[in-house]
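Example record for the data management plan.
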Amino acid sequence: MATLRQPLDTLHEASERIGEIILGKNAQIQLALACLLARGHLLIEDLPGVGKTTLAHALAQTLGLEFQRVQFTSDLLPADVIGVSIYDREAGGFRFHPGPVFTQVLLADEINRATPKAQSALLEAMEEQQISIDGQTHRLPEPFFVIATQNPAQQLGTYPLPESQLDRFLMRISLGYPDAAAERALLAGSDRRGLLAALTPALDADELRRLQTAADKVHAAGPLLDYVQALLAATRSAPQLRLGLSPRGGLGLLRAARGLALLRGRDYLVPEDVQAVFPAVAGHRLQALDTDAPLPDEALQQLLDRVPLP
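Corresponding structural encoding:
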């Protein structure tokens, strides 16, 4: 852990700088960075105007990685995301022209305003870190991180993400309205776009990969694994839920908790790490019987309360 102290300190500094742009949302910023350390993809869902895209931009700029932004609209085609093969007369064959997905950080803005066909263009990229087109496989850069924003599904002009697409996102977070003090500071402070433009990278790709490798090695003791299994069982036996968390959801819960533990300066897991990431990991994977909406935070907290701590 000592050899990682400097990159971790730099990451904490980046968190503080992001917190100067996205005011009063330190918990969400910590979760977003934990998602990155866990090699996951992040979905930011909330009403327009609360800072979703600003947070995504701030995260991308602090990583020191190449990034592209795609504005998802109803007329977006899969080729607009992954690329297209065009016939080259001089070469006498087709040549693949990579799309914006060939980057290290992809900002998929308002992803649920695109049709399901366009949304599905990201499925293979997010799961396999590659693109298959015309019988050929093209590897994506390393690391590869998707930050997507979406508006609530009940808004006009949105196409709800299917379960298979939602499951590719390790975590889903919401920002919500700022509290009174943060909103006053926002109204009286500098323009967010100016602060965002002045934000400089805090890490480089090598430091990020070292931190991600360290997160993979965060220790989970036997009683902690028992606790995670009990949480999974609680979601599967809850009468108000259609389906419980899958084994992949359980693995995602551990990965996210490891990322948060490392961010907190530890090389071992404690139950508080799991509890802190549980709503963001489980909320978009669980559905109540009587609605298609993600499970509310109150219901997720009730699930946590049902499982005794180890």
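Summary line stored alongside the record: Residues 17 and 39 are 22 Å apart (CA to CA).
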